[in-house]
Design brief:
This protein has one domain. Helix content is about 10%, strand content about 35%. The protein has helices at about 1-10, 15-20, 40-45, 95-105, 155-160, 255-260; strands at about 10-15, 25-30, 35, 55, 110, 115, 120-125, 130-135, 140-145, 170-175, 180-185, 195-200, 210-215, 220-230, 230-240, 245-255, 265-270, 280, 295-300. The relative contact order is 0.19.
């Protein structure tokens, strides 16, 4: 009974199963452009900007009306032992709002702080800057710099739409020893929307990147999340065409092509409007999933109570 109740509230999907819920056949989209960048360390310039009022960043759009329930959760468990603490190996200051003010003249709220450890570095990315730190000492080795600096010389909205679109993500692909860096980009009317994705060419986050622009047209791909998996880079978004909500979309990017810097496609499964905010799993550790097992995505559905 507990198991049935649990899964009535929390669904686990594999991407292979998502097509069963899709409103239409999956769409395949080629990257609008791609290239290989110069080393990021050579693209970053340091200079202070005039100080202006801080700004509110674009918030994730609501996908439905708020809901609540007075029914107690029958599978919720209380703590039965003391929480175990952790031993801090290294503690250092990351980016601050003032770092963003120094670059843009203002800071964004919320910061959407995101970070990942690699082989030798820690990369922190916030709205709307990126910085690289030495994982052993905590010393800052690059930045903070505007995220769009990574797309210098790339052309198109990833480079030229200003300021940066936000909702940034950084992950470390430990299987390939590469970094994934992404952020949204869009015009002032949200009629042209992109995901800008960069894959490093080595384990050095300050080096060069394979850069990609994936266009979503007039569909705003809000709240993007990524997961590293052996067969693809998985991505989920909430799709907003105009002022409505179309539902979540689950996508897979051609990981092998992007690691090689070759032309790459994304394949996406559009979900109905009662499915929102999918979260793809992200592989950590050395134990690989069984061959041909796709990633798992989690979603909290509309309540059945």
């Amino acid at each position: 009974m507990k198991r049935a109740t649990f899964f009535s509230l929390l669904w686990l999907f594999s991407l292979a199963c998502l097509s069963q819920f899709a409103l239409a056949a999956p769409s395949v989209t080629a990257a609008a452009r791609h290239d290989i960048s110069a080393p990021l360390r050579n693209l970053v310039s340091v200079g202070a900007s005039a100080q202006n009022a801080d700004k509110q960043q674009v918030e994730p759009r609501p996908t439905r009306a708020p809901f609540n329930s007075n029914v107690p959760d029958p599978v919720a468990q209380q703590l039965t032992a003391t929480l175990q603490g952790v031993t801090t190996g290294l503690n250092f200051e990351g980016q601050s709002a003032q770092d963003t003010r120094n670059i843009f003249g203002f800071a964004f709220v919320p910061p959407d702080t995101n970070g990942a450890p690699g082989a030798n570095q820690f990369v922190q990315i916030v709205n709307i800057t990126i910085a690289v730190y030495d994982k052993g000492s905590g010393a800052q080795v690059l930045g903070p710099a505007a995220i769009h600096t990574l797309w210098t010389g790339f052309g198109g909205p990833c480079e030229f739409d200003f300021p940066d679109g936000g909702d940034p993500v950084v992950l470390y692909d430990h299987l390939a020893r590469r970094w994934l860096v992404s952020q949204l980009q869009f015009n002032s009317t949200f009629t042209q929307n992109e995901q800008c994705v960069a894959i490093s060419t080595s384990s050095d986050a300050t080096g060069s990147y394979n850069r990609y622009e994936f266009d979503f047209g007039s569909n705003f791909p809000d709240y993007p999340k990524y997961g590293i998996w052996p067969d693809a880079y998985y991505n989920t978004v909430n799709v907003f065409p105009g002022h409505g909500f179309a539902g979540a979309e689950a996508c897979a990017f051609d990981r092998n092509a992007m690691l090689a810097g070759a032309a790459a496609n994304m394949i996406c499964f559009q979900q109905p409007s009662n499915v929102s905010s999918l979260l793809p799993s992200d592989l950590d550790g050395s134990v690989l999933p069984r061959r041909a097992v796709p990633t798992i995505s989690l979603v909290w559905p509309t309540p059945l109570i």
